[in-house]
Amino acid sequence: MTSDSAVRLAYIAAAMYGLALAFALAVVLARSPKPVTPAFDAVAECSPEDLAHYCRGARARVSSFHAFGSHHPIYAIDGRSSEDLVEKWVSAPNDDAPWIDVLFPEPVSFSTVRLSHAGTAEASDYTMRSYRLSCSAGAEVRGSLGIHSNEAPRPLHPLRCRNVDRLRLDFDVEPGTARELVRLYEVEVAP
Ligand SMILES: [Ca+2]
Questions:
Q1: Domain count for the chain
Q2: Model pTM?
Q3: I want to staple 163 with a disulfide (CB 3.0 to 4.6 A). Which of 8, 21, 38, 107 is the partner?
Q4: What's the 151 CA to ligand 1 centre distance in angstroms?
Q5: What is the rounded CA–CA span in Å between residue 169 and residue 131?
Q6: Looking at residue 68, what DSSP letter applies?
């Protein structure tokens, strides 16, 4: 085989590999346009200080996640503010309006939301600066709070919500910067 043929074969192989990857990604996205974590049964006495913990039956639903990085949204409600760089929810690169919902198995009331941003384990400029928290019962929004200049890696936000079944975080990404993806290690919701 000539070197030209070998180069041509290498190009063809690379192109086919790229097509296979694109097809696999399309299948993943088509099957789960709004990925949601499994519904675990609530465990009695589990994590009394964190209503968002999956062991209480809470679920996380997201606009997207970074599938190739294994950054599944379950990491945002597993009760661990780990410094392991895999253990975070990361939004997909093409998601320009990322959000995460915490879905409660039954109506809950709470007054604070603690977030663990990327700055808890990574460079501070990965910490999200601008986002909105809102809670709702069905379609009725019962509380919201806009954050516009956050620099804290682990801020505690006051948000008074009564008998709600969902907490939503809507993030403002900043394309071309470290904040072009959301990197969130944990959401904690306290009574
Ligand atoms: Ca976590």
A1: 2
A2: 0.81
A3: 107
A4: 19
A5: 7
A6: G
